[in-house]
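Case study 2.
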Amino acid sequence: MAIWHPFTQMREYEPLVIEEGKGAWLKDIQGRWYLDGVSSLWVNVHGHRNPYIDKAIKGQLKKIAHTTLLGLGNIPAIELAENLIAISPKGLKKVFYSDSGSEACEIALKIAFQYWQQCKKPQKRKQKFIHLDLSYHGDTFGAVSVGGIELFHNIYSPFLFKTISTPPPYCYRCPFNKTGKICGKECLSKLEKIIKKNHKEVAGLIMEPLIQGAGGMIIHPPGYLKEVRRLTRRYNILLIVDEVATGFGRTGTMFACEREGVSPDIMAVAKGLSSGYLPLAATLTTDKIYKAFLGTYDEKKTFFHGHTYTGNPLACSAALANLSIFKKQKTLEKLKTKISWLKKLVSPFASLEHVGEVRQCGFMVGIELVKDKETKEEYPWQEKIGIKVCLKAREKDIIIRPLGNVIVIMPPLSIKKWELEKLICGVYESIKEK
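Prediction:
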């Protein structure tokens, strides 16, 4: 095999090769169709081969496929930036393009750091970042430095810059051993202590809003995000939200921040931005931060960062069509019914012998499998329980991918009701039969 697949132990891997897609379905080279239960890794929004997005890309191809943003501009990139600002949380006014979620977060970190070095009243000591344990912000070194998943990140520790971590609000496995009514929100108290002690040296706090994806679909309790925003404002720390996985309708609103009325200082988006068609990401920020990078040429305040395919016209055309579909087809409004239906469908999972917890945030679901339900004992890594369930689901014409012992369900927002029912029933049976 010539391809080295990501996050994959190649010694034990037999790939399923896809040649075609339509709507919520994927077809392999043997002609068999499967439901795409994870939106081709959380990116597809309106279905594969969406005619409206296909048409937009073909139309752009008649003009130009790529032109650099280094010193030049292009119409799709300009229009998309304006559209993104119009739908984003209040205060975000500038858009910096890149190619992936990792890059969008890396850019956010660099902007936050450089801002404090050259703003009107520079604070040179502000060089550190706070992040949550079990967080994931990408695979480049800066993004890994603010990550918190040992399996992915520990081996690279000699290369990473020092950060400050705080326990996540992982209620099912509370780091403070609190549950239900006796929860004293120690996670927030701990964070406040960390911020109070270190705020003069902290440039920013980066987090996934509402739900930590790759860490195991960990859903934050109501009000957590809003309180973090309050703390960062109080202690003069930039709040960076990573909406790479949560953006573009995944939580039921266009962006997860909206669920708690939070406006960050910097926001990273990717994945669903182009509806899974082409690599595209963006980092949005405020006028206040942007203006700190303005000056005469010899002041060297420029943000010296960029990518060859930044603001690619084809990708931006796909993204513009994606946003247009949201509006024309009232995607978010229709999604409310689907979210309620999904909640009803996944509720029976909780009664299964080896399901510890079912977690749902909008159209994002995580089902944590445990060896012992009473003690919450985890399955040993070598048992590969998540992989076994996913392979069983494949036999039922369903494609899903696990996060260790957590089964993830995140279909395209356009999935039909009967398809959603088939997907959930298939996953349920796969867990029972595993």
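The longest strand covers residues 92-98.
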